[in-house]
Amino acid sequence: MYQAVYSGKISGNGVFTKKCQNFFEEKYGFKKALLTTSCTDALEMCAILCNISPGDEVIVPSYTFVSSAVAFVRQSAKIVFADSYPDNPNIDPEKLETLITPMTKVIVVVHYAGVACDMDKIMKIANKYNILVVEDAAQAIDSYYKGRPLGSIGHMAAFSFHETKNVISGEGGLIAINDERFIHRAEIIWEKGTNRAEFFRGEVNKYSWVDIGSSFLPSEIVAAFLWAQLENLDMIQAKRKVLWDAYYKLLKPLADIGMFKIPIVPDYATNNAHMFYVVCNNLEGRTALIDKLKIDGVGAVFHYLSLHSSPYYLDKHDGRELPNCDMFADCLIRLPMFYELGIEDVNQICNIIVK
Ligand SMILES: Cc1ncc(COP(=O)(O)O)c(C=O)c1O
Q1: N or C: which end of the chain has fewer CB within 10 A?
Q2: Beta strands in 189-284 (DSSP E)
Q3: Ligand 1 neighbours by CB, cut-off 6 Å
Q4: Interval 45-70: pLDDT, tens
Protein backbone atom coordinates (compact mmCIF):
# COMPACT_ATOMS: atom_id res chain seq x y z
CA MET A 1 0.00 0.00 0.00
CA TYR A 2 2.92 2.28 0.81
CA GLN A 3 4.27 1.60 -2.68
CA ALA A 4 0.90 2.33 -4.27
CA VAL A 5 0.45 5.59 -2.38
CA TYR A 6 3.98 6.85 -2.99
CA SER A 7 3.98 5.86 -6.65
CA GLY A 8 1.45 8.65 -7.08
CA LYS A 9 -0.82 6.28 -9.08
CA ILE A 10 -3.72 5.32 -6.86
CA SER A 11 -6.66 5.25 -9.27
CA GLY A 12 -7.62 1.86 -10.74
CA ASN A 13 -6.08 -0.55 -13.25
CA GLY A 14 -2.45 0.09 -12.30
CA VAL A 15 0.47 -2.15 -11.33
CA PHE A 16 -1.17 -3.82 -8.32
CA THR A 17 -4.45 -4.46 -10.12
CA LYS A 18 -2.52 -6.20 -12.89
CA LYS A 19 -0.44 -8.24 -10.40
CA CYS A 20 -3.63 -9.50 -8.71
CA GLN A 21 -5.40 -10.24 -11.99
CA ASN A 22 -2.37 -12.14 -13.37
CA PHE A 23 -2.17 -14.12 -10.14
CA PHE A 24 -5.77 -15.32 -10.53
CA GLU A 25 -5.43 -16.05 -14.23
CA GLU A 26 -2.21 -18.04 -13.74
CA LYS A 27 -3.05 -19.89 -10.51
CA TYR A 28 -6.67 -20.76 -11.26
CA GLY A 29 -6.75 -20.70 -15.07
CA PHE A 30 -9.48 -18.07 -15.41
CA LYS A 31 -9.41 -16.82 -19.01
CA LYS A 32 -9.85 -13.24 -17.76
CA ALA A 33 -9.84 -11.85 -14.22
CA LEU A 34 -10.95 -8.29 -13.43
CA LEU A 35 -10.87 -6.83 -9.93
CA THR A 36 -14.09 -5.15 -8.81
CA THR A 37 -15.05 -3.10 -5.78
CA SER A 38 -17.13 -5.99 -4.36
CA CYS A 39 -18.52 -9.40 -5.20
CA THR A 40 -21.90 -7.70 -5.59
CA ASP A 41 -20.38 -5.54 -8.34
CA ALA A 42 -18.88 -8.62 -9.99
CA LEU A 43 -22.33 -10.24 -9.93
CA GLU A 44 -23.84 -7.09 -11.46
CA MET A 45 -21.29 -7.33 -14.25
CA CYS A 46 -22.30 -10.99 -14.72
CA ALA A 47 -25.96 -10.01 -14.99
CA ILE A 48 -25.13 -7.41 -17.67
CA LEU A 49 -22.90 -9.87 -19.55
CA CYS A 50 -25.65 -12.51 -19.52
CA ASN A 51 -27.82 -9.94 -21.32
CA ILE A 52 -30.73 -10.33 -18.93
CA SER A 53 -33.87 -8.65 -20.23
CA PRO A 54 -37.38 -8.35 -18.73
CA GLY A 55 -39.08 -11.73 -18.51
CA ASP A 56 -35.84 -13.73 -18.33
CA GLU A 57 -35.70 -16.19 -15.46
CA VAL A 58 -32.66 -16.79 -13.28
CA ILE A 59 -32.47 -19.76 -10.92
CA VAL A 60 -30.82 -18.83 -7.60
CA PRO A 61 -30.59 -20.78 -4.35
CA SER A 62 -32.80 -19.22 -1.69
CA TYR A 63 -30.18 -19.88 0.98
CA THR A 64 -27.67 -17.23 -0.08
CA PHE A 65 -26.68 -13.62 0.38
CA VAL A 66 -29.03 -11.10 -1.24
CA SER A 67 -26.40 -10.09 -3.83
CA SER A 68 -26.69 -13.44 -5.68
CA ALA A 69 -30.26 -12.44 -6.55
CA VAL A 70 -30.38 -8.63 -6.46
CA ALA A 71 -27.68 -8.24 -9.12
CA PHE A 72 -29.98 -10.03 -11.59
CA VAL A 73 -33.17 -8.33 -10.34
CA ARG A 74 -31.56 -4.96 -11.20
CA GLN A 75 -31.39 -6.17 -14.81
CA SER A 76 -35.15 -7.06 -14.60
CA ALA A 77 -34.80 -10.81 -14.12
CA LYS A 78 -37.48 -12.92 -12.50
CA ILE A 79 -35.82 -15.01 -9.79
CA VAL A 80 -36.83 -18.65 -9.43
CA PHE A 81 -35.58 -19.81 -6.07
CA ALA A 82 -34.10 -23.30 -5.60
CA ASP A 83 -33.80 -25.41 -2.47
CA SER A 84 -30.66 -26.73 -0.75
CA TYR A 85 -29.73 -30.36 -0.11
CA PRO A 86 -31.08 -31.65 3.23
CA ASP A 87 -27.55 -32.09 4.62
CA ASN A 88 -25.63 -29.32 2.85
CA PRO A 89 -26.69 -25.70 2.16
CA ASN A 90 -25.65 -25.90 -1.54
CA ILE A 91 -28.21 -25.99 -4.37
CA ASP A 92 -29.65 -29.47 -4.95
CA PRO A 93 -29.16 -30.27 -8.67
CA GLU A 94 -31.64 -33.18 -8.56
CA LYS A 95 -34.49 -30.66 -8.31
CA LEU A 96 -33.03 -28.17 -10.78
CA GLU A 97 -34.50 -29.49 -14.01
CA THR A 98 -38.09 -29.03 -12.79
CA LEU A 99 -37.41 -25.27 -12.40
CA ILE A 100 -36.30 -24.75 -16.00
CA THR A 101 -38.68 -23.07 -18.47
CA PRO A 102 -38.10 -21.65 -21.98
CA MET A 103 -37.38 -18.30 -20.22
CA THR A 104 -34.53 -19.63 -18.04
CA LYS A 105 -31.35 -17.82 -18.98
CA VAL A 106 -28.97 -18.32 -16.05
CA ILE A 107 -28.36 -20.64 -13.12
CA VAL A 108 -26.48 -19.04 -10.23
CA VAL A 109 -24.72 -21.53 -7.97
CA VAL A 110 -23.27 -20.57 -4.59
CA HIS A 111 -20.42 -22.63 -3.15
CA TYR A 112 -21.51 -22.24 0.46
CA ALA A 113 -18.67 -22.09 2.99
CA GLY A 114 -16.26 -22.59 0.08
CA VAL A 115 -17.47 -26.18 -0.49
CA ALA A 116 -18.22 -26.94 -4.14
CA CYS A 117 -21.66 -27.49 -5.59
CA ASP A 118 -21.89 -30.62 -7.74
CA MET A 119 -20.72 -28.83 -10.87
CA ASP A 120 -20.73 -31.80 -13.29
CA LYS A 121 -24.44 -32.32 -12.69
CA ILE A 122 -25.17 -28.58 -12.90
CA MET A 123 -23.15 -28.02 -16.08
CA LYS A 124 -24.77 -31.06 -17.72
CA ILE A 125 -28.25 -29.65 -17.11
CA ALA A 126 -27.18 -26.13 -18.16
CA ASN A 127 -25.62 -27.39 -21.41
CA LYS A 128 -28.68 -29.51 -22.19
CA TYR A 129 -30.91 -26.40 -22.08
CA ASN A 130 -28.32 -23.88 -23.32
CA ILE A 131 -28.34 -21.96 -20.03
CA LEU A 132 -25.45 -19.87 -18.67
CA VAL A 133 -23.93 -20.73 -15.28
CA VAL A 134 -22.62 -18.04 -12.93
CA GLU A 135 -20.63 -19.28 -9.94
CA ASP A 136 -21.11 -17.10 -6.88
CA ALA A 137 -17.72 -17.98 -5.44
CA ALA A 138 -17.81 -15.20 -2.82
CA GLN A 139 -16.58 -17.65 -0.15
CA ALA A 140 -14.75 -20.06 -2.41
CA ILE A 141 -11.23 -18.78 -3.04
CA ASP A 142 -8.66 -21.55 -3.37
CA SER A 143 -11.19 -24.35 -3.25
CA TYR A 144 -11.69 -27.11 -5.81
CA TYR A 145 -14.22 -29.44 -7.45
CA LYS A 146 -12.68 -32.73 -8.66
CA GLY A 147 -9.35 -30.89 -8.86
CA ARG A 148 -10.74 -27.91 -10.80
CA PRO A 149 -10.59 -24.48 -9.12
CA LEU A 150 -13.97 -23.07 -8.13
CA GLY A 151 -14.78 -20.10 -10.29
CA SER A 152 -13.23 -21.76 -13.37
CA ILE A 153 -16.11 -24.11 -14.24
CA GLY A 154 -19.16 -21.92 -14.97
CA HIS A 155 -19.25 -19.40 -17.82
CA MET A 156 -18.26 -16.72 -15.29
CA ALA A 157 -17.80 -16.32 -11.54
CA ALA A 158 -17.70 -13.71 -8.79
CA PHE A 159 -15.42 -13.66 -5.73
CA SER A 160 -15.49 -11.48 -2.59
CA PHE A 161 -12.61 -9.95 -0.65
CA HIS A 162 -14.87 -8.39 1.98
CA GLU A 163 -13.21 -8.34 5.40
CA THR A 164 -15.12 -11.49 6.45
CA LYS A 165 -13.52 -13.63 3.72
CA ASN A 166 -10.29 -15.68 3.66
CA VAL A 167 -8.42 -13.11 1.57
CA ILE A 168 -9.50 -9.53 2.12
CA SER A 169 -9.20 -5.92 1.00
CA GLY A 170 -11.86 -4.33 3.20
CA GLU A 171 -14.40 -4.33 0.42
CA GLY A 172 -13.40 -5.92 -2.87
CA GLY A 173 -14.21 -8.52 -5.47
CA LEU A 174 -13.30 -10.18 -8.74
CA ILE A 175 -15.10 -11.30 -11.86
CA ALA A 176 -13.61 -14.36 -13.52
CA ILE A 177 -14.57 -15.01 -17.14
CA ASN A 178 -14.14 -18.53 -18.48
CA ASP A 179 -16.06 -18.28 -21.74
CA GLU A 180 -14.03 -16.16 -24.17
CA ARG A 181 -17.17 -14.78 -25.81
CA PHE A 182 -17.66 -12.50 -22.80
CA ILE A 183 -14.13 -11.10 -22.31
CA HIS A 184 -14.23 -8.16 -24.70
CA ARG A 185 -17.54 -6.84 -23.36
CA ALA A 186 -16.47 -7.41 -19.73
CA GLU A 187 -13.52 -5.03 -20.16
CA ILE A 188 -15.86 -2.38 -21.57
CA ILE A 189 -18.52 -2.73 -18.85
CA TRP A 190 -15.74 -2.58 -16.22
CA GLU A 191 -14.57 0.82 -17.53
CA LYS A 192 -17.89 2.72 -17.59
CA GLY A 193 -18.94 1.41 -21.01
CA THR A 194 -15.81 2.66 -22.79
CA ASN A 195 -13.16 0.87 -24.84
CA ARG A 196 -10.38 2.33 -22.67
CA ALA A 197 -8.66 -1.06 -22.30
CA GLU A 198 -8.24 -1.33 -26.09
CA PHE A 199 -6.92 2.24 -26.15
CA PHE A 200 -4.25 1.46 -23.53
CA ARG A 201 -3.24 -1.64 -25.49
CA GLY A 202 -2.81 0.60 -28.54
CA GLU A 203 -5.58 -1.19 -30.46
CA VAL A 204 -7.60 2.02 -31.05
CA ASN A 205 -6.28 5.60 -31.23
CA LYS A 206 -8.94 7.14 -28.96
CA TYR A 207 -11.40 5.72 -26.54
CA SER A 208 -15.14 6.21 -26.74
CA TRP A 209 -18.42 5.36 -25.09
CA VAL A 210 -19.48 2.07 -26.71
CA ASP A 211 -21.82 0.21 -24.30
CA ILE A 212 -23.43 0.35 -20.86
CA GLY A 213 -21.20 -0.06 -17.82
CA SER A 214 -20.14 1.46 -14.55
CA SER A 215 -17.05 2.23 -12.49
CA PHE A 216 -16.55 -1.35 -11.34
CA LEU A 217 -12.78 -1.18 -10.81
CA PRO A 218 -11.19 -0.62 -7.38
CA SER A 219 -8.41 1.85 -6.61
CA GLU A 220 -4.77 0.79 -6.49
CA ILE A 221 -4.84 1.19 -2.69
CA VAL A 222 -7.38 -1.64 -2.49
CA ALA A 223 -5.49 -3.71 -5.07
CA ALA A 224 -2.19 -3.27 -3.17
CA PHE A 225 -3.82 -4.42 0.06
CA LEU A 226 -5.19 -7.45 -1.77
CA TRP A 227 -1.82 -8.21 -3.35
CA ALA A 228 -0.19 -8.38 0.08
CA GLN A 229 -2.85 -10.91 1.09
CA LEU A 230 -2.36 -12.96 -2.07
CA GLU A 231 1.38 -13.13 -1.42
CA ASN A 232 0.47 -14.80 1.89
CA LEU A 233 -2.37 -16.97 0.58
CA ASP A 234 -0.77 -20.32 1.47
CA MET A 235 -0.02 -19.19 5.02
CA ILE A 236 -3.55 -17.85 5.50
CA GLN A 237 -5.14 -21.03 4.17
CA ALA A 238 -2.90 -23.30 6.24
CA LYS A 239 -3.73 -21.44 9.46
CA ARG A 240 -7.47 -21.50 8.76
CA LYS A 241 -7.37 -25.24 8.03
CA VAL A 242 -5.71 -25.91 11.40
CA LEU A 243 -8.52 -23.99 13.14
CA TRP A 244 -11.21 -25.74 11.07
CA ASP A 245 -9.76 -29.19 11.76
CA ALA A 246 -9.64 -28.41 15.49
CA TYR A 247 -13.33 -27.44 15.52
CA TYR A 248 -14.17 -30.60 13.58
CA LYS A 249 -12.23 -32.91 15.91
CA LEU A 250 -13.59 -31.34 19.10
CA LEU A 251 -17.23 -31.15 17.97
CA LYS A 252 -17.52 -34.46 16.10
CA PRO A 253 -18.28 -36.47 19.27
CA LEU A 254 -21.31 -34.22 19.90
CA ALA A 255 -22.41 -34.54 16.28
CA ASP A 256 -22.05 -38.33 16.55
CA ILE A 257 -24.61 -38.41 19.37
CA GLY A 258 -27.04 -36.18 17.44
CA MET A 259 -26.62 -32.92 19.38
CA PHE A 260 -26.19 -31.06 16.09
CA LYS A 261 -24.72 -31.59 12.64
CA ILE A 262 -21.31 -30.44 11.44
CA PRO A 263 -20.28 -29.64 7.84
CA ILE A 264 -20.09 -32.41 5.26
CA VAL A 265 -17.42 -32.02 2.59
CA PRO A 266 -18.42 -34.31 -0.32
CA ASP A 267 -15.70 -36.45 -1.98
CA TYR A 268 -15.70 -34.20 -5.04
CA ALA A 269 -14.99 -31.04 -3.01
CA THR A 270 -12.14 -29.53 -1.01
CA ASN A 271 -12.47 -27.47 2.13
CA ASN A 272 -10.95 -23.96 2.02
CA ALA A 273 -11.74 -23.46 5.72
CA HIS A 274 -13.78 -20.37 5.03
CA MET A 275 -16.33 -21.16 7.72
CA PHE A 276 -17.05 -23.63 10.50
CA TYR A 277 -20.73 -24.04 11.24
CA VAL A 278 -22.99 -26.32 13.23
CA VAL A 279 -26.62 -27.07 12.36
CA CYS A 280 -28.78 -27.36 15.47
CA ASN A 281 -31.80 -29.65 15.62
CA ASN A 282 -34.28 -26.75 15.84
CA LEU A 283 -34.58 -22.98 16.17
CA GLU A 284 -34.94 -23.10 19.97
CA GLY A 285 -31.73 -25.11 20.31
CA ARG A 286 -29.91 -22.63 18.11
CA THR A 287 -31.17 -19.60 20.01
CA ALA A 288 -30.14 -21.21 23.32
CA LEU A 289 -26.64 -22.00 22.01
CA ILE A 290 -26.10 -18.51 20.56
CA ASP A 291 -27.28 -16.95 23.84
CA LYS A 292 -25.02 -19.17 25.94
CA LEU A 293 -22.00 -18.41 23.78
CA LYS A 294 -22.81 -14.70 23.96
CA ILE A 295 -22.87 -14.77 27.77
CA ASP A 296 -19.40 -16.32 27.65
CA GLY A 297 -18.18 -13.59 25.27
CA VAL A 298 -18.22 -15.66 22.07
CA GLY A 299 -19.77 -14.06 19.00
CA ALA A 300 -21.45 -16.92 17.14
CA VAL A 301 -24.02 -15.87 14.57
CA PHE A 302 -26.71 -17.34 12.33
CA HIS A 303 -26.49 -16.74 8.61
CA TYR A 304 -28.85 -16.16 5.69
CA LEU A 305 -32.60 -15.73 5.99
CA SER A 306 -34.49 -17.45 3.14
CA LEU A 307 -34.66 -15.03 0.23
CA HIS A 308 -37.93 -16.49 -1.13
CA SER A 309 -39.76 -15.28 1.98
CA SER A 310 -37.92 -11.95 2.32
CA PRO A 311 -40.07 -8.78 2.50
CA TYR A 312 -38.94 -7.80 -1.02
CA TYR A 313 -39.55 -11.15 -2.71
CA LEU A 314 -42.39 -12.81 -0.78
CA ASP A 315 -45.18 -11.62 -3.09
CA LYS A 316 -43.07 -12.30 -6.19
CA HIS A 317 -42.20 -15.89 -5.20
CA ASP A 318 -44.27 -18.65 -6.80
CA GLY A 319 -45.28 -20.10 -3.44
CA ARG A 320 -43.21 -23.31 -3.55
CA GLU A 321 -42.01 -24.50 -0.16
CA LEU A 322 -38.22 -24.68 0.20
CA PRO A 323 -37.92 -26.65 3.42
CA ASN A 324 -34.19 -27.35 3.45
CA CYS A 325 -33.38 -23.69 2.92
CA ASP A 326 -35.75 -22.72 5.75
CA MET A 327 -34.14 -25.34 8.00
CA PHE A 328 -30.65 -23.88 7.44
CA ALA A 329 -32.04 -20.37 7.98
CA ASP A 330 -33.43 -21.52 11.36
CA CYS A 331 -30.73 -23.88 12.59
CA LEU A 332 -27.26 -22.96 11.29
CA ILE A 333 -24.71 -21.15 13.50
CA ARG A 334 -21.32 -19.89 12.33
CA LEU A 335 -18.56 -20.19 14.90
CA PRO A 336 -15.73 -17.63 15.06
CA MET A 337 -13.25 -18.17 12.23
CA PHE A 338 -10.62 -15.59 11.34
CA TYR A 339 -6.88 -15.56 10.82
CA GLU A 340 -6.02 -14.06 14.22
CA LEU A 341 -8.03 -16.71 16.13
CA GLY A 342 -5.82 -19.00 18.21
CA ILE A 343 -6.12 -22.75 18.63
CA GLU A 344 -6.60 -22.08 22.37
CA ASP A 345 -9.64 -19.91 21.46
CA VAL A 346 -11.10 -22.81 19.49
CA ASN A 347 -10.53 -25.15 22.46
CA GLN A 348 -12.29 -22.69 24.76
CA ILE A 349 -15.25 -22.18 22.40
CA CYS A 350 -15.68 -25.93 22.02
CA ASN A 351 -15.50 -26.42 25.80
CA ILE A 352 -18.38 -23.98 26.21
CA ILE A 353 -20.40 -25.81 23.56
CA VAL A 354 -19.67 -29.20 25.16
CA LYS A 355 -20.83 -27.85 28.53
C1 LIG B 1 -22.66 -15.91 -1.30
C2 LIG B 1 -22.34 -14.45 -1.30
N3 LIG B 1 -22.46 -13.76 -2.45
C4 LIG B 1 -22.16 -12.45 -2.52
C5 LIG B 1 -21.73 -11.76 -1.40
C6 LIG B 1 -21.45 -10.29 -1.52
O7 LIG B 1 -20.09 -10.00 -1.37
P8 LIG B 1 -19.57 -8.48 -1.26
O9 LIG B 1 -19.79 -8.05 0.15
O10 LIG B 1 -18.12 -8.57 -1.64
O11 LIG B 1 -20.35 -7.69 -2.25
C12 LIG B 1 -21.59 -12.42 -0.19
C13 LIG B 1 -21.14 -11.69 1.00
O14 LIG B 1 -20.84 -12.21 2.04
C15 LIG B 1 -21.91 -13.81 -0.13
O16 LIG B 1 -21.82 -14.51 1.02
Answers
A1: C
A2: 260-261, 276-280
A3: 38-40, 64-65, 67-68, 110, 136, 138-139, 160, 162, 173
A4: 999 999 999 999 999 999 999 999 99
